[in-house]
Design brief:
Structural class: alpha+beta
Strand order of the largest sheet: 1-2-3-4-5-6-8-7
Low-confidence stretches: none
Helix content: 25-40%
Strand content: 25-35%
Largest sheet: 8 strands, mixed
CATH architecture: 3-Layer(aba) Sandwich
Number of domains: 1
CATH class: Alpha Beta
Shape: globular
Distance between the termini: 37 Å
CATH superfamily: Gcn5-related N-acetyltransferase (GNAT)
Length: 183
C-alpha cells in the first residue's frame, strides 16, 4: 500500500478497485450524504461511476485525487485534493463515516492537504465549498485555515433543503497561508 500522506492519527492512501465496499458503506449513511445528495449512493453507481472516476484522476493527475483515510481502527472515510480549472489551484474536501465524526479528523486531514498543496505541489491557492447551511463543514474550513470568500447559487433540478441559502466558497492563497504559519 502506498501512503499518500500521514498525519498524527490518519493515513491517506490511494483507493484501489477492491475498495468498493468501503465507498458503499460510507455513502449508504443518509446523514453522511445529507448535504451532498440527500440520499445513499446506489452500489451500482459506486461501482460504475464513483470508484472509476476516483481511479481515473490518479492517472491524469498523479499527485491529486481522493484518498482513503484510515485511523487506528481502519477505514474512516476519504479526503480529496482535486484539480480545478486553474492549474495553480486545488480544491479540498472530505467525507467521513459517522463513527469518525467529532474526533477532529476533518480538520486534521484538511489542514494536512492544504500544507501538501503549498509545500509539495507548488499550488498558489486552495479552495473548498459546501452548502451555506452546512455549519459543521464551514467550521472545519475555518479551523483548517481557509477563509470565507463568497456565497454563490447553483441551480439544482431537485434541490436539497437549505439550497435556497446558496453555496459558500472558502479559500486561502499561498502568501496568506505562509504568513499564518510564520506569524
Amino acid at each position: 500500500m502506498t501512503v499518500y500522506l500521514e498525519t498524527e492519527r490518519l493515513r491517506l492512501r490511494r483507493f484501489t478497485a477492491g475498495d468498493v465496499e468501503l465507498l458503499v458503506e460510507l455513502d449508504a449513511d443518509p446523514e453522511v450524504m445529507r448535504f451532498l445528495t440527500g440520499e445513499p449512493t446506489p452500489r451500482d453507481e459506486v461501482e460504475s461511476v464513483v470508484l472509476p472516476g476516483i481511479l481515473k484522476v490518479y492517472d491524469e493527475y498523479p499527485e491529486l485525487g481522493t484518498f482513503a483515510a484510515e485511523d487506528a481502527d481502519g477505514f474512516a472515510g476519504w479526503f480529496g485534493i482535486q484539480p480545478t480549472a486553474d492549474p495553480g489551484t486545488v480544491g479540498v474536501g472530505y467525507r467521513l463515516l459517522r463513527s469518525a465524526w467529532g474526533n477532529g479528523y476533518a480538520t486534521e486531514g484538511t489542514t494536512a492537504l492544504i500544507a501538501r498543496a503549498f509545500e509539495d505541489l507548488g499550488m498558489m491557492r486552495v479552495e473548498a465549498d459546501t452548502m451555506a447551511v452546512n455549519h459543521r463543514s464551514r467550521s472545519v474550513m475555518r479551523r483548517s485555515g481557509l477563509r470565507f470568500e463568497k456565497v454563490f447559487h447553483v441551480h439544482f433540478d431537485d434541490p436539497l433543503p437549505g439550497t435556497e441559502f446558496g453555496e459558500v466558497l472558502y479559500s486561502v492563497d499561498r502568501t496568506t497561508w505562509e504568513a499564518g504559519r510564520h506569524g
